[in-house]
Amino acid sequence: MKAVVQRVTSASLTCENKLISSIDNGLVIYFGVGVGDNEKQAEYLAKKVCALRIFSDENGKMNLSCKDLGYEILCVSQFTLLADLAHGNRPSFTLAEHPERANELYEYFCKCLEQNGVVTKKGVFGGDMTISQVNQGPVTIVYENVVAK
To answer: How confident is the model at residue 147 (pLDDT cuts 50, 70, 90)?
Structure first.
């Protein structure tokens, strides 16, 4: 399981020229499911992301989470995070979970984000999406090989 988390002041997602989701201040999460990933990992990652203290407090220190501030999350499924570039120039995606199972875990992850108290908007699983975002900082956090505790 991989997630790229970016702090934004705004983000919007369209698919087939139709606005699907948008947020103001918050997080954009690009979420990839690897072969063998499971619900326990998704639960753990959702809890970590919702508590991630990367927003500034009154002293300018990164000390607040999106949950603390009532910010939203835009979560986008992205199997290309699991690209294997070890051989040649064309990425292999054999490390990515099969679409049906990946979608189940994506939906479950989004549900877990909501259960952790953060309004979560989604993309279109498997869709050809266009994402516009204004990064703040920039602040980008990468979670890889998530192991549930």
So the answer is: confident
Query: Can you name the CATH fold of 2-143?
Result: D-tyrosyl-trna(Tyr) Deacylase; Chain: A; (3.50.80)
- pLDDT-derived band at 146 (thresholds 50, 70, 90) equals confident
Point out the residues that are catalytic.
78-80
| Interstrand relation of 2-15 and 18-23 (parallel, antiparallel or unpaired) | antiparallel
Q: What is the three-class DSSP state of 52?
A: coil
Question: Model pTM?
Answer: 0.95
Q: How far apart are the first and last CA of the chain?
A: 14
Q: Of the candidates 64, 62, 31, 45, which has an alpha carbon nearest to the alpha carbon of residue 115?
A: 45
Integer Cα distance of 102 and 89 in angstroms:
25
